[in-house]
Design goal:
Its main location: membrane. This protein is an all-alpha fold and 366 residues long. The chain is 73% helix and 0% strand. The longest helix has 35 residues.
């Protein structure tokens, strides 16, 4: 089975690589490059970024996939989390130091100054909050299809396609909407609102399978997520200095993953709590651990209890996702600005500022 999955991943990855190469922009559309010496690269900052990001995300993802709530008390959760937070503190202190000491003569891995921009900080906060419900649903929906609706593992995964497809459509729409006019604020608010509506509709599901409703409701979540992802990305390209483009985009990706990890952890914790509540006297520990597997042999009464527990857990999970998504709507209003320029005009200003900075830096060297 594992080799079969790997055999499928290889061709898919190759097709993605070919598309990436064929769609690479022509040289006239690429930004001008700035050559930097090796001594200007922030090696220590890069190591601290990796340590803080990987360790914190690993802690929550690992604890979130444990079958019991004891995962939150084990050293494999506590130790990486503490080390990751410590690395995060060192990273911030180091970035403040190099910003004050060397300023533009150094290429920071995690530039603190970009968070002084209210619009970009709003995009980061919104990305974090929208990552929570989206990855929570990616984790919880196939599980519900598999246990409550009795679908196979493959079909349960395939049934995510409506949400994934509408996420792509949402990204395309955001790009189209903002191609000429600057509607990034409206796109961010709309996307967050649609995500909230989708999660809210999912809370109305009963403990029955309701596959058709789930497939319909999840499209709102996908569409909203796509709108917010594209809008946040566009905001970062016009609000952040060109020299900080790469870390700015990396920060957005990482906070989205962090929010999703928290969502998965919350989903798993709730599922464990419901399993303990409804299944502790019905199933053995081994039977609970093998639910949904090929070795599961349960009576009709036991399956009924399992379906109820999983459906009840899903209902609570989407309620929490709705609250977090509603918070993302509130956060999106931080991107409002009067007298907005067109996207193209803002990009010209960013390019002009970068050219002025490079000329000033060259003059200092001379």
């Amino acid at each position: 089975m594992e080799m079969g999955v790997l055999d499928q991943v290889g061709p898919v990855g190759f097709v993605s690589l070919v598309i990436f190469i064929l769609t690479w922009p022509k040289s006239e559309y690429l930004p001008s490059k700035e050559r930097r010496a090796w001594k200007e690269l922030d090696f220590l900052g890069s190591l601290l970024v990796i340590a803080s990001a990987v360790l914190v995300v690993f802690s929550f993802q690992n604890a979130g996939t444990e079958r019991s709530n004891d995962g939150w008390k084990t050293s494999i959760f506590v130790a990486p989390l503490i080390c990751g937070l410590f690395a995060c503190g060192l990273l911030i202190a180091w970035q403040i130091f190099i910003q004050c000491r060397w300023h533009d003569r150094f290429a920071p891995a995690f530039p603190i100054n970009i968070f002084r921009n209210r619009i970009y900080s709003t995009a980061v906060a919104n990305t974090l909050l929208n990552g929570f419900p989206y990855l929570l649903l990616i984790y919880a929906i196939p599980l519900r299809f598999q246990v409550v609706s009795g679908k196979s593992t493959l079909i349960s995964g395939v049934m995510l396609l409506p949400m994934l497809g509408t996420a792509a459509i949402g990204s395309l729409l955001a790009g189209k909407i903002n191609a000429t006019k600057n509607y990034t604020f409206e796109s961010l608010v709309l996307g967050s609102s649609v995500m909230t509506i989708g999660c809210g509709l999912l809370t109305s599901l009963s403990h029955e399978p309701n596959d058709a409703k789930i497939l319909g409701y999840m499209t709102f979540c996908g569409l909203g997520f796509g709108l917010t992802v594209a809008s946040s990305t566009m905001l970062s390209t016009v609000e952040v200095p060109i020299r900080d483009y790469a870390p700015a985009q990396g920060i957005l990706s990482q906070v989205r993953l962090l929010g999703g990890s928290l969502g998965i952890a919350a989903s798993s914790a709730l599922l464990n709590e419901k399993s303990s509540k409804y299944l502790s006297g019905v199933l053995t520990a081994h039977e609970q651990a093998t639910i949904g597997g090929s070795n599961t042999h349960l009576t009709r009464a036991q399956w009924s209890a399992v379906r109820y527990a999983y459906a009840d857990a899903f209902q609570v999970e989407v309620k929490i996702a709705t609250v977090v998504a509603a918070c993302s709507v509130i956060s999106a209003f931080g991107a409002f600005r009067k007298g907005r320029l067109l996207i193209a005009e803002q990009r010209k200003i960013i390019v002009r500022e970068e050219e002025d900075r490079r000329r000033a830096q060259t003059a200092q060297v001379v």
